[in-house]
Amino acid sequence: PSKRSQTASSLEDTGPLSGIRKLQTKQKMMVRSKGVISLCLAVCIALCTHHQCNASASSSAAKLESAEALEEAMTKMKEKKGFRGRKEARKANIEAREKYVELKQAGVDSVSNTKESIAIRAYEMRKKKKKFILKKEKSLSAVLFPGVSPVEYERGELVPIFAELVESHKTQVPYSYYSRSLPFCPRPNPAHARKAKRKNLGAKLQGARTELSPYDLTVLEDTPCTAICEVPLRADSRQLAYLVKLILRQYRVHLTLDSLPVLVKNPAMNYAARGFPVGFTTPPANGMGPPDMHVYNHLAFTISYLKDSDSDEPDGSVRITGFDAHPISIQHEGHVGESVTTCTGSSYPQNNPRTFMTLSDTGTSNIIYSYEIKWVESDVAWSDRWDIYLLGGVNNDAIYLSMINSLMMTLFLAAVVFVIMVRTLRKDLAIYNDLELDLTEEDGQEESGWKLVHGDVFRPPSTSPLLLSVAVGTGAQIGTSVSITLIFAILKIVNPMNKGAMLSAIIFLYVLSGSVGGFVSARLYKVCDATEWKLNAVATAVALPAFLTGMFIILNIFLGIAGAATSVSIFTIIGVFLLWTCVSVPLVFVGSYFGFRAGKLEVSTKTNQIARFIPEKNFARRSIATLALSGIVPYVNMIVEFAVIMNAIWLNHFYYTMGFLFVSILCVTISCIAINIVTCYVQLCGEDHRWWWKSFLNGASAGFFIFLHSIWFLSHRLQLVGMLPVVVYMTYMSMISLCFALYCGSLSFISCFWFTRKIYGALKVD
Known about the structure:
alpha+beta
């Protein structure tokens, strides 16, 4: 029996049952080991979490302490005055710089609404809050919107969110939010909708459209996920094609709340941009073919507010200090009006690649638009709510250096003109008037050319004196309107942040300055021994407006065909035409009447019957050299300011430094006058008496350099897609370059005419 049992046990150990038992034993051991490992991992995670919580708490406390120290140092910088105060302010500036560096090294961003981020923004924006001349600190809201007081909102009050344009930096063809070509929600019910904001003439010409959005906002009441509308899109529909184009060309939707543009923030990237994108693209699933198109159909709004400090009630009035949106793409389930399971009071949509709202190119895409609103109390003051919108803008230090450079160049040119007027001309006049001066023969020959043309220097131009007088008068009219507009902007009568109001002011002041253009044109035309003052008045009143209006109407036809929001209605064009014919033309006739009625400008020399022969010119006196020199000097004087203006016009940046612009225009004016007087003197020394048209063209060449700069800006800064955006850009830049050329050409001619009258009036001629 014992042998039999041993034999049976040996068979069990080597048989199929033994393998099953060993496998079960291994599984039990693995389960036990997994339990031990899981327990160890849980303990490690708990210890690490505790350590990280302590570290994050300590780092948060350190960041908060640095932020408070930064605010205290900046307060000292503002309050200290006098000699000792300046010394303490420098120490406070150094301390503030150190705390700012500490916060940046700790990873604090500049776009959040935390106390640390607010302190960083205040430090970065401290230079932009200064007035132009005085070193007094002001809030940015007072600089951008002088005289505007905050609006107080009560709990439960309905506040409208306005929809503006849908535009992109890659095209200059914006669309209206409620355009028929775009698959967005329809307009709200007119019975419940508030009226849109009124538009002035400049806003209508720019195509600015502000309409009520479909989003309902109630003060201090959070709104859960709410479905607004459902838009079906077929694969062959026009709306789907437009939506794909908007996504590919990176169009963004712009909304405003309490005059604040909507912001899309990314604190991790320290990034904030106005407007939310229409959609985005992802690589195709199979890795081949066109990218997949996804649309942002859900918006998570975050409204930051500040309670009224004067009110002790918990439900007191509040001020809106921030308007943020987080766009989300989600494929909603259900239908609007029945049940949308992915958009309920307890659901919070998130961006998930598995649930993106993908546009179908084969069937029908049902887009359900939804939104949610959350109110968050913030420490941002109402006066500082615009700080985040100007982050990363133009550097004020660069503008200061540019202004100093322009002033130095202007002073140098003024000194050169002074030397010519006081020293060189005095010697010339002494020689020509037979005074006894101890000058060498070489010096006398070197500077003895300009007297020889005294009998031809005031000979009227043989080529179209009417066109010359009209161009000079129009340039004077442009200069008058722009100068008055800048003065109004500096005095805060016109707000430069409102581009429509600025354009309206320029148009109205140009119309009202028609008498200036007519007077200058008539006076010059009378010097040319012309008598047809009515023809001159009509040409002055019609030439530039008709040319610009013709270009604008042709461009407007193409924009209307493309369905752009910037296409102007026929009623606006009729209004501009009536403004021109009923106001500008009569004023031009009034100025022209008084200009011809005044006496003729007398000159000191008589004009010979036969024109003098003009000798061969050297390189310095050739037309190309003088054109290049006379045009590039005014252009260089304002190149930095012009670049900032280009960013404001075409890249939708904010521009409010009208004081700097006024100084730049003043430097351009003085340098244009000075350099053209020098070139006119050099031309007269070369015995060339045909200075009339050349003096105007020398100054007008600055507009050519502006046009070249616009071409460079198009190729290096803009990434326009399509032919129509390029046509729009080149058309408007041609208008701007032409107006700048007329202004500089008019300055050049008037200054050269005054210069020649002065020097030949002091000359004794038999």
